[in-house]
Specification:
The structure holds two protein chains of two kinds. Chain A is mostly beta strands. Chain A has strands at 4-7, 10-13, 19-25, 30-38, 45-51, 57-58, 67-73, 76-81, 90-98, 101-107, 111-115. In chain A, a hairpin with a 6-residue loop joins strand 4 (30-38) and strand 5 (45-51). In chain B, strand 7 (60-65) and strand 8 (70-75) form a beta hairpin. Classes of the chains: A mainly beta, B mainly beta. Chains A and B meet through strand 5, strand 9 and strand 10 of A and strand 5 of B.
Chain lengths: 116, 109
């Protein structure tokens, strides 16, 4: 099946620094990638949807200047958390959907971010 | 607004059967997914229903009634490793997944 990787799997950083998370589709071309955030004991919350070569569409309440998303190729999307604060500590998960297959999202393993 | 409802927590016994229900109200419908999520891990795909009826896959089955906005996930012959959260998600008219809060399933020996 389709494989999606995320890097890093764990990151600990100081408050005020920026963190970049990569999401890669390893064996298929991902036209659309989704970024989710999940706080403990809560469900996944969609942050933004990105299509290759175009600007990401952010969900209401998600600051686009704080969570920078770049989907420069059909196999790579990045999420940069700028000036991270402790309240940004969360589990960030990406998923990818292939061309003409929007019904199926393949999930990455997630990145756990801890901001001190 | 869009809404997905599922029970917060359920408890069952090893070897038994458990049914996890999900009701939904969404803008459009392009299918309903069930995912399993173990603590600290990303969700893993279990099933996809877009037509009414029952889909069986090994120990797991998923049922959909579009007219009732209702689905259930049926787990048979429960094993300890089935202890996890089970997430119901609906693909809306914009092909975005609308997620339920998840049902934490606790399996007791």
């Amino acid at each position: 099946g389709a494989v999606v990787s995320q890097h890093p799997s764990w990151v600990i950083c100081k408050s005020g620094t920026s963190v970049k998370i990569e999401c890669r589709s390893l064996d298929f071309q991902a036209t659309t990638m989704f970024w989710y955030r999940q706080f403990p004991k809560q469900s996944l919350m969609l942050m933004a949807t990105s299509n290759e070569g175009s600007k990401a569409t952010y969900e209401q309440g998600v600051e686009k200047d704080k969570f920078l998303i770049n989907h420069a190729s059909l196999t790579l999307s990045t999420l940069t958390v700028t000036s991270a604060h402790p309240e940004d500590s969360s589990f960030y998960i990406c998923s990818a959907a292939g061309t003409g297959d929007l019904e199926t999202q393949y999930f990455g393993p997630g990145t756990r971010l801890l901001v001190l | 607004g869009q809404n997905i409802d599922q029970p917060t927590e359920m408890t069952a016994t090893e070897g038994a059967i458990v049914q996890i229900n999900c009701t939904y109200q969404t803008s459009g419908f392009n299918g309903l997914f069930w995912y399993q999520q173990h603590a600290g891990e990303a969700p893993t795909f279990l099933s996809y229903n877009v037509l009414d009826g029952l889909e069986e896959k090994g120990r797991f089955s998923s049922f959909l009634s579009r007219s009732k906005g209702y689905s259930y996930l049926l787990l048979k012959e429960l094993q300890m490793k089935d202890s996890a959260s089970y997430l119901c998600a609906v693909l809306d008219s914009n092909y975005q997944l609308i997620w339920g809060a998840g049902t934490k399933l606790i399996i007791k020996p």
